Amino acid sequence: MGDNIWQNPVVWGLGGIYGLLVVAALVVCGLCKSYPERNYSELIDRTRTWAVIITMVAIVTVMGTGAAVLFFGFISFLAFKEFLSIIPTRQSDRRVLFFAYLVIPIQYWFVYDVWYGMFSIFIPVYAFVVLAFLHLLTGETKGFIKAAGTLQWGLALTVYNLSHIAYLLVLPLKDPVVAGGAGLMLFMLFLTQFNDVAQYVWGKMAGRRRIIPSVSPNKTWEGFIGGVITTTLMAGFLASYLTPFSMIHGFVAGAVIAILGFIGDITVSAVKRDLGIKDSGKSLPGHGGYLDRLDSLTLVAPVFLHFTRYFYG
């Protein structure tokens, strides 16, 4: 992150996030003391998990690009593994799944090598062709479309889309800023999670009209609109500190993050509804599984990267 680490906006940004975490922890402690008869175990678990997540992101960000790419590659591995654990698979597809896992290190190598051409087409073109062919070699035609399509969709969601987070770290910019790629990454990650909280809070305070009750009964138009406005304003404020964006582009980026974060959230909710499960796993206490925490980012990350690359790359 450079010699003058304390002059880097990313360090101050991480410090601000830790400050918010401390405030949240104090609020939880206050609630536990004020209302001891209530059960706050889930809220406590959620806060502790956030502390671990934020610390891990902070460590790999400070360590540099290589460590961060490895970290996000591992996150994709965990998310893909979790995805495969909740979907039905055929016995004949076990060998195909092995080769699907090999896609992960190859994709992230293209990120580390800053090979944008292969990074952008490897999974949707080459992995698509090879894995479809491997499915054919099993000789099992019953359930072929479902098996092949589900695997490709899972790779796109958990590996291809999420790898765009890591590519932000190496994205060449026309006019480099002090925060660099780490600033872009922090900007996107923070606003995506901030939007989740903002939509939840607005929904609790003013939510009346449900958007898609059959998919996500707690999502309301009031929560969605309130979250979009709040996230857009926050993005405009943070843009000049962490990104090369103008204020206008900061506002646009905030709106894009808020809207796509919502769509990513309900998309994964639809998957869980289809499978008849509440959470994708139990790996993150208070949050559920990895997909439960990454759902918004699966759609935000690729669009945010291409937005940034188009205007500033």
UniProtKB/TrEMBL annotation:
Gene Ontology terms describing biological process: peptidoglycan-based cell wall biogenesis
Protein name: Phosphatidate cytidylyltransferase
Molecular function GO terms recorded: nucleotidyltransferase activity
Keywords carried by this UniProt record: Membrane, Nucleotidyltransferase, Transferase, Transmembrane, Transmembrane helix
Coiled-coil regions listed in the entry: none
Pfam families assigned to the protein according to its UniProt record, in alphabetical order: CTP_transf_1
Ranges annotated as spanning the membrane: 12-36, 48-75, 118-138, 150-171, 177-202, 223-242, 248-268
Keyword Transferase recorded: yes
GO cellular component labels: plasma membrane
The organism's place on the tree of life at top rank: Bacteria
